[in-house]
Every structure is written in structure tokens, then in C-alpha cells.
TrEMBL record:
The lineage of its organism: Bacteria, Pseudomonadati, Pseudomonadota, Alphaproteobacteria, Hyphomicrobiales. InterPro entries: NTF2-like_dom_sf. This is Nuclear transport factor 2 family protein. It comes from the Bacteria.
Length: 124
């Protein structure tokens, strides 16, 4: 039985892998175009990023800042309903240690990310 809900896990995992782990700008651009609405907004703790190209650039800058071995890894499965979903993740060098953990919370409209809140967990 179909609930009419999008596949929240696939969508948020794809966003993490194909946007925030993708170092190739052309592939990152294609992923944002596929996964996001026409005018997405990403809310970070100190910044608001508006539009597909700005999100592509912000992800690229983040990857450049942390180096080639840095990656985001999902923790568990994304859950959601009625257009709201969340996915927890951790990030750091692929061989460890974990540098940061957080959660992406997304508003989903027409099976695409309309708004994304990036929530960082406090460090110990």
C-alpha cells in the first residue's frame, strides 16, 4: 500500500552523498538540480544559503576547507512524514576520528528538498 510519501531516506542520503560529498562541481550541480526544488534554501547556524547554485558553491567550499579525505556519513535511516524529514550524520576523515556530528532536517515539497536546516551537535 502506497502512502503517497516520498522516499525520505533515499532523498536525504542522496543529498548527503551526491551534494555534500561530491567534489566534482558538475556532478554536484546536477544532483542539486535533481534533488532540490527550483529555489531551495539551506539554513546553517551562521548563514542562509539561497538558490541551487549557491548551495552547490557552499558544498564545494566546505569540501575544499576540510580536504580530500573528509566525508559525511549517514547515521541510521532518515525518517519523515507529511513533508518533513531528518537524517543524522557524522563527518570527518574517512579513516577517523569523527570531527563533527549533526542532523539535516528538510522540508520536502513535490518530492524535492525545498528547505534544509543543518543542525550541528555541540562538541564535547
Amino acid at each position: 500500500m502506497s502512502t503517497g510519501e516520498p522516499d525520505y531516506d533515499r532523498l536525504l542520503r542522496s543529498n548527503l552523498e551526491r551534494v555534500f560529498n561530491e567534489r566534482n562541481a558538475a556532478r554536484r550541480t546536477a544532483a542539486v538540480a535533481e534533488l532540490s526544488g527550483a529555489d531551495p534554501v539551506m539554513f546553517e547556524s551562521a548563514n542562509v544559503v539561497r538558490g541551487q547554485s549557491a548551495i552547490v558553491d557552499a558544498a564545494g567550499q566546505l569540501l575544499a576547507q576540510f580536504g580530500a579525505d573528509f566525508a559525511f556519513v549517514p547515521i541510521g535511516h532518515a525518517v519523515g512524514h507529511h513533508g518533513l524529514a531528518r537524517l543524522s550524520w557524522q563527518a570527518g576523515p574517512r579513516t577517523g576520528p569523527v570531527a563533527v556530528t549533526g542532523t539535516d532536517v528538510a522540508e520536502i515539497v513535490d518530492s524535492r528538498i525545498a528547505r534544509l536546516w543543518v543542525l550541528l551537535n555541540p562538541t564535547a
